Each structure stands twice: as structure tokens, then as C-alpha cells.
Amino acid sequence: MGAASPDVEVAVVGGGIAGLSAAWELRDRDVLVLEADARVGGRLMSEPRGRYWLNFGGHVLAGEDSATGRLLAAAGVEAGDVPGVLTALAMNGRVLTGGRVETYPLRLRLTTAERLALIRAGARVRLAVLEYGRVARRRAGESEADRRARVLAYRDDRTFADFLGPVPAEVDAIFRPTIQRSSGEPEQVSAGYGIGYFHLVWDREGGLSRNVLGGSARLPQAIAAALGDRVRTGAPVERVVAGRDGVTVHQGDERIRARYAVVATPAFAARELLEGVPAETVEALGRVAYGPYVVGAFLTDEPGPMPYDGVYAVATPKTSFNMLFNTANVTRGPGPREPGGTLMAYSAASLADALADRDDEEVARIYADDVARIFPAVAGHIIEVRIRRWAHGLPHPRPGRHLLQPALERPLGNVFLAGDYLGTTYVDTAVATGTAAAHAIRRRLRE
Known about the structure:
Layout: E1 8-13, H1 17-25, E2 31-34, E3 46-49, E4 52-55, E5 61-62, H2 67-75, E6 79-81, E7 88-91, E8 94-96, H3 104-107, H4 112-136, H5 144-153, H6 160-164, H7 169-180, H8 191-202, E9 208-212, H9 218-227, E10 231-232, E11 239-242, E12 247-251, E13 254-263, H10 267-273, E14 274-275, H11 279-286, E15 290-300, E16 313-315, E17 323-325, E18 341-348, H12 350-354, H13 360-374, E19 382-395, H14 405-409, E20 415-417, H15 427-446
């Protein structure tokens, strides 16, 4: 670039929530967001349906005292605490929607040997979750990047399946859906990460327990609306070339010169885009593991109360999907129950692979049949099913993942990385890393 004036101060590559978080923090500067898709938001995807909405991606968010909570407040997007049960379980014809999870072994249809094995495994996970909570707590004077690295290193020497040990098939079926929510299998994800997922699910205070009212897409849409024409959609980037004096972004026939760039794409995409950064960073980006998702969103027209009204999340072993969510639950307040609603089911990891050769219409039928088997009252009231497939649904740490972190977090000159793959708290990691990149760039712009 030499001494030539840049076209923009900051180019943000990727219009998911990580890139939009960075652009939001730099909205008073000369910033340009380039998004390959026709829409912003990445895996924060929803569609309105009257007073309800269909969800196709991320839907439960961190609390008010988090990077996501602060962004929601600043952008003026309303979110509410998810009411009802987050740890329901439907298995072998029985739906457990109340009481502590520790009582589940006594209430499920299991043999005595299976029941004892579930109690032992559950106690092991419960103790580890408590330990994880202590490990994940931020220490005085510690940076968020240091905390992320420490959490990633927790029990990162073996898989969750190794940590749990051999268990009967019925017990495995109970634990597997929660781990598969991460897009990986218990035999793939690191033990610490799997334990951390149970911590996120069970911890209402510090876990994931809020919904955006109107659908998760409202947050990226609000940020994009505020940025206006500084967000370009349908603008795929081919190369991001880092130089000593700045960055050149190749977008179609255009060469956009920027003083700084935030690369906020998934890790595998960043690996293909980046030039002029250390080889160890490129290699680390290529080693971040992702897994697939198939998501089904349902619009229903029931006239009154349903058996799942007090439930938000149900683990669903032995069905075509891992989890079922009552996504309209946050709209249920005091007073008469409004008719209709929305549900969401998803198949992750091997369950998504099993549906890869089925077309959307067949998947919709399979999903609707399984939902009706779990909650027979919904039969005849599903009026729309939409299917969305994510080939690279979520990143998930595998054993040894923490060894990649130094290469991913190291300074890269005028390029900054942002994305959920840099940590373990999904949307909140994406928002936090996008915001941190923006703060670092702002400091540099003031020098």
C-alpha cells in the first residue's frame, strides 16, 4: 500500500454477529462491513410469524452482565429471560419436565443396573460442573483472552467419553444429546468442553438463558440498520492481504485498502482468505473442528394450553433430533394463553449426517412425526415446517484444542481475528472477540 491513503479505516470481513459487534463499536469511524451472504447475522437467523417467530440458529443468549447483554442494551434490542424448564428429558415414552435432574434416574424406565450407572455418571458430571464453574470464573486482573485460554485448557487431554467412562447404552443415550448440541460426539469433544456444556445448560445465572424478543435476527438487523450503507451484503471476499502499512481486501473486481481489518468469518474461511500472516496462525485456523446441524422450525396453531407450555428445552434421545425447544415460551406471560406458537428441533453431529441424503420435505415429515410422538397434543396443529441446514454449524474443541490458542490470539499486525471459535461461549465469544478487536483498533487509531 505504501503511503497511499486508505479507502477506509477499518474493513470488517464477515457480517455475522462477531463482525457486526466490531463494526458497532467502530460506528463513529470509517468502517465497512463485507458479507458474502444476502443477509447479515450468520447463525443468528430467525423469521417473524405474527407475534411469534421461527428460529433457525442461535437462540439462547448470555445474561445482562455479558458482552452480548451489553450489546443488546446498547443497540436497543429487547431480550427476556427464558421462563420454564431448561433441562426436560423425553425418553422411552416418558417426558420429565419438572424437578431436579438428580432425580431423573429414579423416574426413568431403566433397569436397576442402568439406574445405578446413571447415578454414578451423573454424580461425576455434577462434581465436574462445580469444578468447571470455579475454573471458568474470571480472576482479578485477568484479561478475557487469558480466561478463554485457561478454560480451553481445562481437562483438554481426553474426550468427554473417556471422562465419563463405559456406561450402558441407555445411560449413554441420556448424556449424548447434550454433548451433540455442540455439533460433536462425546468421543470427539474434549472432556472440559463437554463438562462446560452441562455448566452452560444448568447454570441459569451465568449460562445461556435469554431470548431476543421477536427472534435472534433482530440483533444483527438492528446493528446493520444503524450502520446503513456501510454494510454490503452479497459481497464475498476472495483475499485479505496483510501488509506492513495496512491491509488490502479483494472483493470481486475491487481492491479495498484499509488501515486495519477484522476477519470475522468462521475459522476455515479465515484460513483460506488470509495472506501475509504467520503460518502457525493459518495452520491453527485449519485445525478448528466444526460439525453439522439440520434445524427444523415449526409454526403451530393450537387453540389453547399445551403440555410443553412450562418447558423451554427438552433433550430427546432416540429420536431424529437431539433437542426440542419451545421457542414461543418467552412470550407466555400472565393472563390467558394466546393461541398458536413455534417450536424448534435440531439434529447435530451424527444425527445431522444421517439426514444428509433426505430432502427437506422428508426431514420435515420425520421431525413432525417425532414431535407428535413426544407431545401427542400437537398432532394436527403443525401448520408450517421450515428446514435449514448448516454444514458447519458450530466449532467444538477436541482434545489438544488449547494448544492452538496462542497462534489464534497472537498479534497479527493490522489484522484482527474475531469469532465464536476463539472460545467456548458461542454468541458471547463472538461478541466479546469482535468488541475486543474494535477496542484494539480504536487505540491504534488514536496513536
